Amino acid sequence: ATCGHGCKYGECMGPNKCKCFPGFTGKTCNQDLNECGLKPRPCEHRCMNTHGSYKCYCLNGYMLMPDGTCASSRTCAMVNCQYGCEEVKGQVQCLCPSGGLQLGPDGRTCIDIDECSTGKAVCSYNRRCVNTFGSYYCKCQLGYELKYTSGRYNCVDVNECVANTHRCNLHAECLNTEGSFQCRCKQGYRGSGFDCA
């Protein structure tokens, strides 16, 4: 079984046939499946789609039960949580729908954890971290682009000279470097390469 375009979040099952891991879809399993849009809906009240999964939470005045349903709770209504709550040994605790969120100082609203600045994010050396609300993702460093090569997705150097995205002077030559480029004035010209006289 060979899949020319690869299976990003799945396994290759036959000639260009991917079997996606739960929570992913698409020909190459590279798209996140929005479980919140499925019928029947996976959550009773509110649903938050996450990368490869989803989280359920309840309207105010209800609490999330272990089976994902929402049960009316007088105590929950009094606390006024942003994303519903749970009762543990008679104590009411507000919940946050994702691990990338934490309870704010008021104990009711959820605030984002910036995984990129706290060092919780794991991105390979040639990728940079981009924080999102409740999560983060890894993007190729500037001067690199995501390409499917030798069976997987990699950040490959962009050749600015071939792509013609350089800003070299008309009288300069462009030299591609790893992640960037350089400009050198042609023979008989002097300057920075961006300006040649």
TrEMBL record:
Subcellular location: Secreted, Extracellular space, Extracellular matrix
One record GO biological process: cell adhesion
PROSITE patterns, per the entry: ASX_HYDROXYL, EGF_2, EGF_3, EGF_CA
Organism: Origma solitaria
Domain EGF-like: 32-71, 112-150, 157-195
Protein's name in the database: EGFL6 protein
Family the entry assigns: Belongs to the nephronectin family.
A single MF term (Gene Ontology): calcium ion binding
Top-level taxon in the UniProt lineage: Eukaryota
Keywords carried by this UniProt record: Calcium, Cell adhesion, Developmental protein, Differentiation, Disulfide bond, EGF-like domain, Extracellular matrix, Repeat, Secreted, Signal
A Pfam family of this chain: EGF_CA
Gene responsible for this protein: Egfl6_0
The keyword Oxidoreductase belongs to this UniProt entry's keyword annotation: no
